[in-house]
Predict the structure.
Amino acid sequence: MTTFYPLSVKDIRRETADCVSVAFAVPEALQGTFAFTQGQYITLRTQLEGEEVRRSYSLCVSPLDNELRVAIKEVPGGRFSTFANQQLQIGDLVEVLPPEGRFFTPLDAKQAKHYVAFAAGSGITPVFSIMKTILETEPHSRFTLFYGNQRTETIIFREAIEALKNIYLQRLSVYYLLSKEHTGSDLFSGRIDRNRCRTFTEKLIPVSNVDEFFLCGPEEMTLSVRDELRAQGVAREKIHLELFGTNTGKRKKKEHTTIDSDYAAEVSIQLDGNAFSFLMTDPNESVLDAALRNGADLPFACKGGVCCTCRAKVEEGKADMDVNYALEPDEVAAGFILTCQAHPTTDKLVVNFDA
Ligand code: FES
């Protein structure tokens, strides 16, 4: 479940001044393990200055491309992204967790759907994978992309998007927004936000004509577009979102203060058929962090409540989550939690990762 595989870097391509895409060589024997669906991500792990660093990056290619490639945008102060942009070399080995994620909808060549995506910055990565795969797989479907960036030269995959537009002239529409460059139109000069989303849906794409929405970018953009779509009556199941950007994983945690200084919860973890127990005494620590500290090898990636890798089911007791951007309401109702966000609220908590 948490097996990392050492894969060698096959190719590094500079996409923009601060973004590279990195392709990995997948040995024949691991082709099935690394098969993926459009919109999924992989988690990379390496040692930097003697410390383990792991980060998740969305695959930026279509499964039909027969390539395992991610885009890594350099984040100021970002250890892995800086390393990948400045030091990573072809032939280097990186430990890679097989593809995961649920940022996609099933495709079928017989479907005739209209898909609309709102992406900002590196949020284009999974959206590009989704868009390309849909256009190639569903000949009767169309795709509209609203894509926000600071300037023309920071637009990741611009050439590849233009190439797709040339191939799928009738079925792909792309609207670029620039926040630090005037585009000649006020509507497309600035960030994607709730007001612009409303204008786009009023003037360009009525929500009633859209079958699925994909939103990917920083939290503020993604959640504000989602809120606007929900306010316009778009069903929750039609809105798929993935959060990228600086806030992800660094969100201020709720303070779990307790009057009872004797706070203690006995936590039992079930994983791969084995059970493992430990005592939690810090109400601000997550179940995942406490388990890792106690030596458990549990699956996780973002630690920000976004990726869903740390999902598990509560079999006994109760737990509170700080944030949840990944689980659907029916999963929460069924007892699933994101362990990276969960804190026990009962003396005993039994969590099953195999459920
Ligand atoms: S590790 Fe990503 S949601 Fe918990």
Summary: Residues 5-100 form a domain with the Elongation Factor Tu (Ef-tu); domain 3 fold (CATH 2.40.30.10). The chain is about 20% helix and 35% strand.
